[in-house]
DNA sequence: AGCACA
């Protein structure tokens, strides 16, 4: 059913309602940021809004791509259903400078909060101040010859098997993910062939599972 | 099933 006109926000439903909000948002962010920059992920657990989420992309093209690619994607044991959002997200209006509180139309629970918290540039600087391990030999593995097993590094602490499965699952030839007990930061992902592992590798190289952690993918040592 | 953002 071709219903709603393209929108840079994707509306998702049929999500697993048992997943807690922070985890849900993180996983959605990880899963969808492969299509392009994301402005916001909105998920509410209110009776009306549970099981649904909004992914706000910077570009409509990214949203369209996501819509086509992720329709029916198995996510926490349910198939996600995607549509374009019906209206413009606040994150978009804010970016365009057209954001209005629409006096009265929307619920105003209490005090009018006019000023949003300003991101201090100190915070922003701290966020980017993460040392990047360029040039200190940390990426010697880049030279390993292709094989069917990928080696993931720089994984954030909250990584779990399901998140990695969701990411790598979508590539042909996927076999399994192996986590290492006692190490949250590395994992192995196996494919049927080295061509298939190479394709997944280039697609997901630098993928941000969380906004601050870009994972690194190399081929495993044989 | 359910289209919000505090």
TrEMBL record:
One of its GO terms (biological process) is RNA splicing. GO terms for molecular function: RNA binding. Residues 87-143 are annotated as: Disordered. One of its GO terms (cellular component) is small nuclear ribonucleoprotein complex. Its main location: nucleus. The keyword Nucleus applies. InterPro entries: Nucleotide-bd_a/b_plait_sf, RBD_domain_sf, RRM_dom. Residues 8-87, 148-222 form the RRM domain. SMART domains: RRM. It comes from the Eukaryota. PANTHER family: U1 SMALL NUCLEAR RIBONUCLEOPROTEIN A/U2 SMALL NUCLEAR RIBONUCLEOPROTEIN B (PTHR10501). This is U2 small nuclear ribonucleoprotein B. It comes from Amphibalanus amphitrite (Striped barnacle). The gene is Snrpb2.
